[in-house]
Amino acid sequence: MDTQNLVARLNSSGLLRSQCLIGGKWTEAYDGKTIPVHNPATGDVLVNVPCMGGQETNDAISVAYEAFLSWSKLTAAERSKRLRKWYDLLMANKEELGQIITLEQGKPLKEAIGEVNYGAAFIEFSAEEAKRIYGDIIPSPLADRRLLVLKQPVGVVGAITPWNFPLAMITRKVGPALACGCTVVIKPSELTPLTALAAAELALQAGIPPGAVNVVFGNAPEIGDALLASRQVRKITFTGSTAVGKKLMAGAAQTVKKVSLELGGNAPCIIFDDADLEVAVRGALGTKFRNSGQTCVCANRILVQEGIYEKFAIAFSQAVQSMQVGEGFTEGVVQGPLINEAAVQKVESFVKDAVSKGAKVLLGGKRHSLGMTFYEPTVIGDIKNEMLIARNEVFGPVAPLLRFKTEEEAIRIANDTDAGLAAYVFTENVQRMWRVSEALEYGLVGVNEGLVSTEVAPFGGVKESGLGREGSKYGMDEFLEMKYVCLGNMSSS
Ligand code: NAP
Asked: Catalytic residues (predicted)?
């Protein structure tokens, strides 16, 4: 793939934006500072983008506040129409959006286009759900009163998102926010800002008014502090690491903002002796190696019961070995590069720690011969739950296998973590499906299925994996306030 050619083509299509968006205007950093955006597969600089900070963020908040005053007054039907138009434009441009994702994030093009379908679905769902934000009427205990509950938008939302799903993590927040009548200041990762800018360009084309969607990035702590300090920002919605999430939660206390956090996971994937081996291998492969292991719901620990351990390890390793690694634009590639050098070094240190404590590399276990940030799809056996790799997200293409004996032991190991985002269970026993699903301290459980995310179901974690839910009808509540109205003196006589 000739990257420069592709960049030029995307540029002429108007989708490859290299300025931030404030109040409907494409804007440089006020001091002219820029940062490069790299292609992780090649190291090439794709474009330079503004490096913004507190001042630009404050301006974005002001215009978002102005826009809120009118956007929140539109009828739900009108907001719905514009969201639907945005969805149509995202779908009409899915090839180009997929290309931008592959260029800046590295995931294979087919997977990137899959992200566009998934990400756009949140806008479509929000367009539909905008019309169903119902209030309530409560039977009054007093004859002369009428008691009502109104649902109203929280106000301006600060939406901070990570690099691993440059589109979907934004649409999952911005869709419901706009549907409810809120306006947003988006802070995408500086590693993958181009997808966010392309999506914002399409939002403008869809008739989402200037100021309703703003995009700033650059100096993350400065931008975060400005969002936290502002009294006009009434909600912070964040997806990213638990460490940054905790900082934002503490900072939001200054002005008592509503907070939703989608943080890191440490997903157990439990394979019982009575699992269908083929289903378990396919499911574990799907959840472990999606986006080269760089998702919050990736299986981080594969717990395998002793009766099926050897058979599973062999079949799984064979499946992993068949995965093609390479640049995301190459036909047949299913594993791209890791996002940056720091990510590879983290993977290396976890593998080294495991091996030094007795784990055995069954496949891979080192950097890929392609160089850059490519790492070999790896399977490691004899992992113990005390090893670094079982305590923290590896966020890379390494599958650690842990052996267990009983169902009780598997549940104890699975729950022995501060994280609680996703868990997976593979078994053919119906009673066990229920028992184990109920016992797992996680926000999402996949039973005989490794890919569970969808716009129609609530996504989110418990414990230190976060607060609140995204997607589904439940995700709307995160952007709404409830107002109780008591009408007095209502007697008919
Ligand atoms: P991260 O380092 O926490 O960054 C996430 C976002 O926060 C980025 O936009 C980052 O900006 C920004 N940020 C960093 N420091 C900040 C500060 N002091 N104030 C305000 N913003 C700040 O996480 P990441 O490495 O990008 O993403 C990987 C993590 O996200 C993993 O832990 C993964 O599990 C989690 N994740 C969770 C979910 C979920 O739904 N639960 C989904 C996807 C990912 P810069 O990038 O510009 O520094």
From this structure: 262
**CA angle, 120 then 206 then 154, to 5°:** 75
Q: What mean pLDDT comes out for the span 217-239?
A: 98
What is the rounded distance in angstroms from the CA atom of residue 80 to the CA atom of residue 85? 9
Q: Which two tokens stand for residue 386?
A: 């005390």
Helix 109-129 vs helix 94-105: angle between axes, to the nearest 10 degrees? 120
Alpha-carbon distance of 79 to 129, in angstroms, equals: 11
Separation of alpha carbons 440 and 222, rounded Å: 38
**For strand 378-381 and strand 360-363, is the pairing parallel, antiparallel, or unpaired?**
antiparallel
393 pocket-lining for ligand 1 (C-beta < 6 Å): yes
Nearest CA to 232 out of 35, 57, 467, 361 is that of 57
Angle at 102 between CA 96 and CA 108, to 5 degrees: 115
- CA-225 nearest atom, ligand 1: 19
Q: At 271, which amino acid appears?
A: I
DSSP reduced 3-state for 463 = helix
Whether 241 is in the pocket of ligand 1, judged by its Cβ within 6 Å, is yes
Cα–Cα distance for residue pair 155/227, rounded to 1 Å:
13
pLDDT at 3: 86
Share of the chain above pLDDT 70, in %: 100
Q: Which of 20, 115, 189 to mutate to test the pocket of ligand 1 (most atoms within 8 A of CB)?
A: 189
Q: Which residues are catalytic?
A: 262
Question: Which residue among 197, 241, 341 is best mutated to probe the pocket of ligand 1, counting the most ligand atoms within 8 A of its Cβ?
Answer: 241
